[in-house]
Amino acid sequence: MERFKSVKTASIFGILGNLFLLIIKSLVGFITNSQAMIADAFNSGGDIISSVMTFVGNKIASVPSDEDHNLGHGKAEYIYSMLISIIMILMSLGIFKDSFNSIFNHNNLTYSSWLIIVCIVTILVKFSLYLYTNKLAKKYNNLLIKANSKDHRNDCLITLGTLSSSVLTLNKVYWVDGIIGSFIALWIIITSITIFKESYDILMDKSISEITKNKVYEIIKTHEEIEKVIHFNSTPVGYKYQISFTICVDGNLSTFESHKIADKLEKEIAKKLDEIYLTIIHVNPIMIEKD
Predict the structure, then answer these.
(1) Quick check: 247 and 280 in contact, CB under 8 A?
(2) 146 phi/psi in degrees, rounded to 5
(3) pLDDT surpassing 90 at residue 229
(4) Mean confidence (pLDDT) of the chain
(5) pLDDT tens profile 203-216
(6) What is the rounded average pLDDT of the residues 286-290?
């Protein structure tokens, strides 16, 4: 499936790009004693884990339904997204502690033009990955790739902060480095919590959005034979939803006629709403008073 192949490719690009950044950031960060750069390096390490998780989660989610998993393996996408967020939070707490300590211990970084070069290279690599993954996230509505896209975007802003602290060292303003390192950690934590919540909502079978639900009702309204709709329910199936509801129709219609209405409606919803995986409609005959 094109969706899963595209996410696989994006995750491989993410692994290679972040591995390259991890190496150069670590070398320059430890040589210059820059807490912001070291924090940025740890962030790239977390990004590698995220990209690996994306690769594995996407591979599992792409497995079709079987006898043991009738609705497929799509929720693996959200399980791995949640794991990514937890790893990122734990990693960020360590970064925050080290950066916070550096402020009060007055750790001085050694200015180097390599700090500037690494920051510029990072911004170029990350912005390119952001544009690529953001396009895929919008196209396929994939939470794993969406999480990666947000991470790439945040990294661009974070590295701008690292670049600022490096430039400030020319004026012997060293304490800013620890503060920016702390902000980097907090930024990662906030992003991770957002990803965790989105994953949690799907795994806990959060209902379909009101926007999509209203789209379904708009389609139903075009069928004049349907008097009313009751018992509307929805369940996440991977990145899509399974919906079920009961339509009330004229009890004088034959069983064949009433179910023909339901079949037609199911096909129409499947055709018009890509976010719907399966529609199950129960038909309830009611008495209609005629003038």
Answers:
(1) no
(2) -65, -40
(3) yes
(4) 81
(5) 887 888 899 999 99
(6) 70
Q: In what order do the strands lie in the sheet with 226-237?
A: 226-237, 240-250, 276-286
**CATH classification of 210-286, choosing from 3.60.21.10, 3.30.420.10, 3.90.1310.10, 3.30.70.1350?**
3.30.70.1350
CA 67, chain centre distance (Å): 28
Are 203 and 174 spatial neighbours (Cβ–Cβ below 8 Å)? no
Among 48-52, 176-180, 198-202, name the one with the lowest average pLDDT: 176-180
**CATH classification code of 2-203:** 1.20.1510.10
CA 162, 164, 166, 172 torsion-angle sign: negative
CA terminus-to-terminus distance, the chain: 54
Burial of 107 (0-12, 13-18, 19+ CB in 10 A): middle
